[in-house]
Structure formats: C-alpha cells, structure tokens
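Problem: given the chain below (365 residues), write out its structure.
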Amino acid sequence: MTPQTGEAEFEQSLRTDVLLAPMTTLGVGGRAQFFADASRVDAMIAGVQWARSQALPLFVLGGGSNIVIADGGFPGLVLRVSLRGMITRVEGRRAVVTVAAGEDWDGFVAACVARNWAGVECLSGIPGRVGATPIQNVGAYGQETSETLVSLKALNLETGRLEEISAAECEFGYRTSRFKAGGRDRFIITNVTYQLKVNGSPAIRYAELKHYIAEHGGATPTLEDVREAVLTLRRRKAMVIDSQDPDSRSVGSFFVNPVVSREEFEEVNRRAARSTTGADSMPAFPTTDDRVKLSAAWLIERAGVKRGYAHGGVGTSTKHALAIVNRGGATAREVIELKNLIQSRVMEMFGVTLTPEPVFVGFET
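Solution.
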C-alpha cells in the first residue's frame, strides 16, 4: 500500500458542510466544515496531514456515543475512524485479541462471549466503537476495560508515527486515562489488544448484578447468562440504544460517579442526613485507595432533578436521572443549560462537583 492510496481514499471521502447530529447517539449538533471517513490507517494519516496543511482544527469521531456537539458545529475537519478487523490468537487458557478501533464495541463483546472468552462480558450493551473504550477506561457492573487491555496502537500526532503503548503506559484510573487527560489531542487510537480467559468464569461482583443473577441465573451462570443479565439491567435504565425507546437517545451516563475523600464523604453524609430520611440514606461504595464513590444519580434526584425532568427539548430519562435525553428537537444549548442546572443544584445541596463524562465538541473554551 503506497501513501498515494491513503491520500486517494481520503480525498474521495472528503465532504463539506456535513450535519453531525445523526452521527451521535444524543442527536444534537451542527455541521462539520469538512468531514471524511477513514477505513485505513494511511487514509487517516492523510486526513491528519491535510488538516494541518489547511491550518484547520481536527476532531476525531468514533461511534458518536459519548459526545455533545455544539449547535454551531465544528469549524474544521471531522475525521471518523472506521478501521475494521479482528485478529485472534489462542494460547492455552488465554485468548489474545487485537481489534481495530472502528469495530463496534458490543459486537466485539458478543463475539467474545460466543467463544466463551471471559473478561468483557459485563461491558455488554455499551454503545460506541472499540477505539473509544480505553480513553475513559470504560467500565460497568464491576468490570473495566483496563482489566483485560494489554496494549494499543495509536498515531502520535506530534511525531506522525504509530506507537505501541502498553497498558501500564495508558495511566488508567476511574473513568480516565492519559488519552482523556493531557493526551486527548495527541493520539488517535488505531487498534486495541485484549487478553481474555478461555472458558473463564464470568465476573459477578456488582451488587445489582449479583442480585439479578441470584434470582434468574441459577447456581452456575455462563458468560451468556451474565451478558443477557447486563443487557436486561441496562435496558431497564434505557442504557442500551433502542430506536423504540426515546429514553435511550442520550450519551448514556452524563456524569461520572464522584469519588471523594473520607473527610469529604462525612460532610456530604451530614448534608444528606439533613435533607433525606433514614430510609433513603445515601449510597456509598468504598474504593481500594481509601476513598468513597458516591452515586451521581442519587445526588441528582435528591437535589430536585427527578427522572423525567424536562427542560425544553431535553430532559432526564424517565428511567434513570443520570442520563440527559433528547426529547425531540433538542439543541446543544439546552443540553448545556440542563447540565449546568444539575451541577449547580448538586453543589448547592451536597457540596459535590459533578464531572461530565462526554466530550464537548465545537464549544468555546
């Protein structure tokens, strides 16, 4: 494959004035000045080089499941990474799988479960593409991407070279990594390698999942049982994309569950005790570093923003207060207004800062 091949593919896919809202799960946002799809690494590199040659800002788009795009759109090149392919290598009890960044995440999880490879079953139903999962160390129901990720390859935008980055170098934390923090505009992930357990047991650690499995899964649940349980629980909260469920038109969880020190927890707990009844005590989950994780959804509802709260064309889901949904004809401005309202009410009542999960694209900083 020659450089000209990548340049030709990029040039053929390059379009102007492209509406971005339909490419996102939230369904809001304006137009990209320029847009291109890259199904090959060299086409992706050609797109990056073209944007630089035109002195244009660059935004890399995946599945559009964790972004809020401004009503004014993006004044530069939106480059969608659509790399495909999966290479597997089984070594005894280990399955090493390298997955292209543009592959559908849940499709990858389903394929692993079908092969009875354990390690990602609790991450079923999460929308988006594989390349996005390491960025915020995607996790759900007691499992995180970082548990099975071995390494990834990424284009270093500063050097123009592809680099292999080990799991240790990813600097994973709770819903974060080096790619979400200082490295957000430095790397474009091209593939990710995971190590899974052949015929391994499913991870059943999360209390809600344990309870569901105890009632429905039997004594020895399979990986498929756990996947179906997770999908059922997520659907109850409208956290699985479903065209028939208006509550699923969202970015999923809009805020990260806050993690606070023990001292901060005691203060939040005192505030909560003054505003809630004993039967409605604040949920809290100790972490391994002697801190405490709080429930953002609980804080939001007790701060007065209930499920089904409406604000113009947006609102909170009728199934889960943590999701901001497009009720029809929503604007990004309304999303930001509701975000700000929720944050201010939680801060006023509990003294807790809620951090948004999605990336905000095209907004003035």
